[in-house]
Amino acid sequence: MKGKFSQLMSRCMLLFLSIGLLMGSQAWAQTALVDKEKSIIISKFAKYSAWPEESALTTFTIGVFNDVEKFLYFSDMYKNKGVKGKDIVVKLVKTSREASDVNILYIPSPNTRKAQNVASNVLKKSNTLIITEGAKDLTNSMVDLSYSNKNENIDLKVIDENITSSGVTIPALSEVLNGAEEDVLDIGPTFALKSQQDSQLRSLQNQLSERNSLLTELNAELRASEEYFNRTLKQESERLAQITQQAKQSEAAQIKEINAKDKTISELSEKLQAQEAQLGMSKEELQVANELQIKEQEARIAELDDKVKQQQSAYQSTMAQLKVATDKNASLSAFQWLFFVFLGIAVIALAIALKLSKKVKSLSEIEVPVPVPDNEVDSLLPLREQQLVKSESLAALGYIATDTSYAVGLQLEDIKAQLESAGDTKSVALLARVTTLIDNLNDIAADQDDTSVQNFDLVAYVQKIISLYKFEFEQSNIEYYYSGEQSLSLLSIPSYIALALQNVINNALKHGFDNNGNGSIRLKVEKDGKNGAKITFIDDGKGMNNETLAKVFESFFTTESKRGYTGAGMSSTYDLIKNKLSGDITIESEEGQWTTVEIFLPSTK
């Protein structure tokens, strides 16, 4: 019986304890909810109220008077919060002096004498907003909070005269009470800065971790690369040893083969010497004939040199007399000057042309004694020897003509200087065409001895060459047209291009127009490829048939051998373009209609 009663008592006590805990927890929850609402109201006063000179403050301070529990609660609620760009600081206030240094003074128990004294002193001395909780005497309060258990809400009482005297401006009560927002405060700037720094630190730590991970991967790859390199080096060393061994074996085989070829060459040399002995008499006779012919040519060239020197002396004497006459008669007209100048040039040109024609005629009449050759003797050798002698003789005359034109150019420069000093600009302008022609001739002639690669304007150089033919074009009634680029830089050998283009023009004048003219020549220069050039030459002469066109580049081929032409012009042009300049040349023609020559010039590297 006793046992049953004890069990019953224990269950009753447990029941009462549970009911008490439930009621206590409800009361605690209700108190926590009320405290949170109070803290939200205080937060709204902090955010929407204005204090005199608040911009000078570095922090926003909320003081809790003499209540440690409330102080701890507010410290936790306002931790890391801010308002108006300032951190919120919660302080536990116990004296009037401490209370005067805060923005909001919260007094949870305002009915004690000490609390009333502190509130009274603060009202008199500072701009602090005093918020009390359930004050019986509102004399020393500005805003009073009271919780009504009946209505389960918080009532606000505002003492306007105390607020006005403090200089603090508070918001309307409707703005404070009706707002549904709970977290009205901002993040504190110090906490935001610290959060940003922590975020940056975490980011840097993540980057460092990633880089360490990458470094670990790179180290692993480096070790793998070293192992691969060592393995490859070993394999290459073994392969090199094999190649070296094979090279030695190949070298031995090549030496053996070379010795065999040397033996064969020795045998062929003996056979060649025997054949040369059989042909010795024919070669000796041919050499004697050539030596006799060369001596005759040298004698004739010396004679021609003497005559040209006499012409130069006569020209210099004429120019000296002309200069004396000029000094005596300074008022000589521009056309008289040019008459004497052109007369001197005409005399020199006529003399040179006469000597050249006589020389060519005399050379064409020479018959080289050629012995009857055996079957193995080249049947073209006498003809080639004769053409070689002609070329050398004409080259010598060309040098004399170049020297003469240079001397004429110097005399023209002296005359030009005298005309400029006399102020005769009209005569200077007329004389400029002659001096330009002489200068172009000298430039082209000077380039013939220079085979170096140069960077030059191809269009300007081609126009210089054409200027040498303009007089002949005018006299032969040949119309000249140019189209294409106005300027084109090319890296090549000018002298080879000049000689090739002269051969093409001369071939057109001699064969295309039969030295009679009456037609047109068209020239075009354009880009070809990246750095190359293309020269297109077209004449409307008599053209070529298919048989002539097929042989036009063969050495010593000519359709006018009876007129003394050697047939070396186009073959040498082909050699210059293809072999010397690494370019290309093509010819198309329609018999009785036209001939087109296309020259492709690469930029020399």
Q: Cα distance, first to last residue?
A: 127 Å
Strand content: 5-15%
Oligomer: single chain
Number of strand elements: 15
Count of helix runs: 15
Order of helices and strands: HEHEEHEHEEEHHEHHHHEHHEEHEEHHEE
Uncertain segments of ≥5 residues (pLDDT<50)?
A: 328-335, 353-381, 387-400
Helix content: 55-70%
Sheet with the most strands, sense and barrel status: 8 strands, mixed
Mean pLDDT: 76
- Order of the strands making up the biggest sheet: 7-6-5-4-1-3-2-8
The whole-angstrom Rg is 59 Å
**Backbone structural class:** alpha/beta
Shape: elongated
Structure description:
The termini are far apart. This protein is 62% helix and 15% strand. Residues 328-335, 353-381 and 387-400 have low confidence and may be disordered. It is elongated and about 160 Å long. By secondary structure, it is an alpha/beta fold. The chain contains 15 helices and 15 strands. The protein has helices spanning 2-48, 68-77, 96-99, 113-125, 160-166, 173-177, 189-328, 334-364, 381-422, 425-447, 458-467, 470-475, 494-512, 546-551, 569-580; strands at 59-65, 81-83, 86-93, 104-107, 129-133, 143-148, 153-158, 186-187, 454-457, 478-484, 489-492, 519-528, 532-539, 584-590, 594-601. An eight-stranded mixed beta sheet has the order 7-6-5-4-1-3-2-8, sandwiched between helices. The chain has a five-stranded mixed beta sheet with strand order 10-12-13-15-14. The chain has a two-stranded antiparallel ribbon with strand order 9-11.
